[in-house]
Amino acid sequence: EVYFKNLSKQKQKEVMEKNGNNHKLRVCVATCNRADYSKLAPIMFGIKAEPQFFELDVVVLGSHLIDDYGNTYRMIEQDDFDIHTRLHTIVRGEDEAAMVESVGLALVKLPDVLNRLKPDIMIVHGDRFDALALATSAALMNIRILHIEGGEVSGTIDDSIRHAITKLAHYHVCCTRSAEQHLIAMCEDHDRILLAGCPSYDKLLSAKNKDYMSIIHMWLGEDVKTRDYIVALQHPVTTDIKHSIKMFELTLDALISFNKRTLVLFPNVDAGDKEMVRVMRKKGIEHHPNFRAVKHVPFDQFIQLVAHAGCMIGNSSCGVREVGAFGTPVINLGTRQTGRETGENVLHVRDADTQDKILHALQLQFGKQYPCSKIYGDGNAVPRILKFLKSIDLKEPLQKKFCFPPVKDNISQDIDHILETQSALAVDLGGTNLRVAIVSMKGEIVKKYTQLNPKTYEDRLALILKMCVEAASEAVNVNCRILGVGISTGGRVNPREGIVLHSTKLIQEWSSVDLRTPISDALHLPVWVDNDGNCAALAERKFGHGKGIENFVTLITGTGIGGGIIHQHELIHGSSFCAAELGHIVVSLDGPECLCGSQGCIEAYASGIALQREAKKLHDDDLLLVEGMSMKEEEIVSAAHLIQAAKLGNTKAESILRTAGTALGLGVVNILHTVNPSLVILSGVLANHYVNAVKDVINRQALSSVKSVDVVVSNLADPALLGAASLVLDYTTRRIY
Q1: pLDDT tens digits, residue range 181-221?
Q2: Domains in the chain: how many in total?
Q3: To which pathway does this protein belong (predicted)?
Q4: Residue 288: inside a domain, yes or no?
Q5: Which residues are known binding-site members?
Q6: Which domain holds residue 254?
Q7: Catalytic residue ranges
Q8: Which of 200, 573, 624, 698 is 20 to 30 A from 182 (CA-CA)?
């Protein structure tokens, strides 16, 4: 909706005039099976919704028209699409020859259909043998081809078919940046490649809130609960049919032993599919009380079934692609999807050669819940594809041009000169304020939102979600693609689970809090959480003085004292996630009491709270104010007053700051003697006041071998937000590249 609101009427008029006399683009969408229709249907709905720009012709062929596979053409009719032509193209058989004959039959029948329709462009999806026949026919008849999901990598003959269609196609819509890079490496014209995401994600990411229990009960029985059943979908591997059938037998045996209610879908039309059905019947799956065997489930209902399953098992691309949007655990068997990008919800069993191995995988995965993954789309694919279709100039030469450039190393995508910057949502939970920002890959804070941090858990979480949703919506307007959410918070954090274990006293009701799950579920984005000190170190590693430095330490000098340690380019968390609690290094056995309950910690001497405490003591004794200083009656004494007094010559204030600087310096010396970094970065509002004192203590107290360490003040304006963004940007770019 935002996309269409931003489209100017003038731009629409220019597109129409470019193709001459308000010519509508005649688009032929050919669908061969239930799987490709789930990807094509969102595009078809989009085309149908804009009759002023497009004419839609629908051609149905392949397994859609076979009773054994559920006569799935009916769901196209139920979606209120007019089917222009039905082509029976499947040759019955159980070997590879039947697939070849099916391709040949389609090639015989398609020319007459295309001659009658005379489309401007044909949309072809994926990597099935039926799609190869479509692309071959259209290319030889000089019809432009738009290929959906090119550039991806998987196993079996599908790879070869997919890449063959790529070479025949004139335009390409891909789902991931890796796929885009593969297409460029295959010498396809970069200007004719659109990185849009998977069209099915436009429906998936809005599907989980719908009523689902009636669907689960309809397909699996009234007694079944959410997360307590399995969806199984396995296809033959045409390059090794015997092994794939044996693997299917082992899978069914494991599922029978696992003893959970299971929905088994019939396999695709491929060589070996009939033998797999015979295996099902031989084992009595269709009559087993724990199993429901079906030929077809409508896509809208299938979404709900996998979204709320305890696990999905098999070798379908749906498992490694679409199911990640819900965080449902997946067991991917065999080599059929080798090379696919997957989320952390997928457990691969490459060599599924024993029942015990598959059973063990079920025990590991069943009932888990993973963060939602958006590797394959962000829910905005169809608007991008429609805009891309409108930009096609039919006056351009039909002949393809192949390019031989180096692979482009860019971090943003170019669609019609609209820059979509890869970005992160960064959240900073401070003692006073709650801040959310859109942060670009280069560390630019594109947009920032600030609210007072609520006092209760419920109010705080609700505000985080509200601010994140607002920021994610704004990201569309400023052309930013959000890759995930990073959260910086005080206290001890388990970053693996996204849980705040223990909070600081500055943030109430903030212990044993799972932040990852509710935020990931609400936003359909991966979420990372870490301690604010660790985030400051990550910010320095990516954007600040620590960039390219192998070993360094960051010390935050603010309300409290915290920090993070980078060793061999990686952040140290420790065995119980308590590493780098640098503010609680003890520098005196009988020093002032710290908020942690101990005595003599650095934080008890050098933090903003400690300086404020000492300033109050001086003020109560009328020893704080000197000539040039004044305070209003209601004004609260702070560390800033102590620093001001010292600058104006107050010897008592100077002594307190000197002691604080010495304590911080002794703590840094202990750090140098423990982890031996090459750089110490002081961050926070007090850093400039302490840097010289720290250097002096190092020169007096440190071993000669570590005195050469560099001590610098951070040049980052907002390390907490930049560090939270680094959690996302570092991880996602590693995964993609």
Answers
A1: 999 989 999 899 999 999 988 888 776 556 889 999 999 99
A2: 4
A3: Amino-sugar metabolism; N-acetylneuraminate biosynthesis
A4: yes
A5: 492, 504, 532, 581, 584, 594, 596, 601, 603
A6: 207-365
A7: 532
A8: 200
